[in-house]
Prior knowledge:
single chain, mainly alpha
Amino acid sequence: xxxxxxxxxxxxxxxxxxxxxxxxxxxxxxxxxxxxxxxxxxxxxxxxxxxxxxxxxxxxxxxxxxxxxxxxxxxxxxxxxxxxxxxxxxxxxxxxxxxxxxxxxxxxxxxxxxxxxxxxxxxxxxxxxxxxxxxxxxxxxxxxxxxxxxxxxxxxxxxxxxxxxxxxxxxxxxxxxxxxxxxxxxxxxxxxxxxxxxxxxxxx
Length: 204
């Protein structure tokens, strides 16, 4: 069917849309002004973080307490009970001791502790006071050769004890393995083959 009498309605796309440049310039200026005000207000609210200078650790890093121990690891176990070295400050697990030392000496860990990576510069007075305190400790006999010798002897004894325990553990493992590997001999089969007299002192 043809509609010869109906008029075709089209879209007039021959003229371009005209933009009000002044209106959009005014909007852009207002937006820039709001962003600038927000930036200044956020700076005023949050002063720059002042971190403490880096200082030495006052505790000993434990790297050997879990050596040689067996541990069952499950996927649902908390981080502190998983295999590796757990950092309670950053709440993460590091798989080996070298990476753990790198982590606790690194920037992220020190920032979590509230310290920067800058070392405080000691004044002349602080150095002199440090020398005086060390001199007093030496005069009072805190550092004596006897104490030093005793510490070395104690360390040697502890090392010997650790070696002895390792040797005993190895012996026990070998003994257990030898007992497992020893075949069980049936008494009837041994008697038929003429091995019945082995291990007995009486002769028939």
